[in-house]
Write a structure and sequence with these properties.
mainly alpha
């Protein structure tokens, strides 16, 4: 799902089940659509990477506190983390 490709299911035709079937499967869409899918996936992954990096850099103090908690306690649930001094 994306704004560019709309909420559609694009899949490969399924033939007989055998080892390596994905290599031999035929697509139900054109090369242009396959390229658009690849491009959209790349964009979504890049957006997610930028957001994750932004959050980690801008919330470094929170990350450091969580690391300290995990070193001392090994596991931390959400409630413990929220109430940690």
């Amino acid at each position: 799902m994306s704004d560019r490709l709309d909420p559609v299911a694009l899949d490969r035709q399924q033939g007989n089940v055998f080892l390596g079937r994905d290599i031999m499967a035929e697509r139900d869409f054109s090369e242009e659509t396959a390229a658009a899918i690849d491009d959209e996936v790349r964009n979504l992954v890049e957006q997610a990477y930028r957001r994750a990096k932004y959050l980690l850099v801008n919330r470094r103090s929170v990350l450091d506190e969580l690391a300290k908690m995990l070193i001392s306690k090994e596991t931390v649930d959400a409630e413990e983390f929220r109430t940690y001094p």
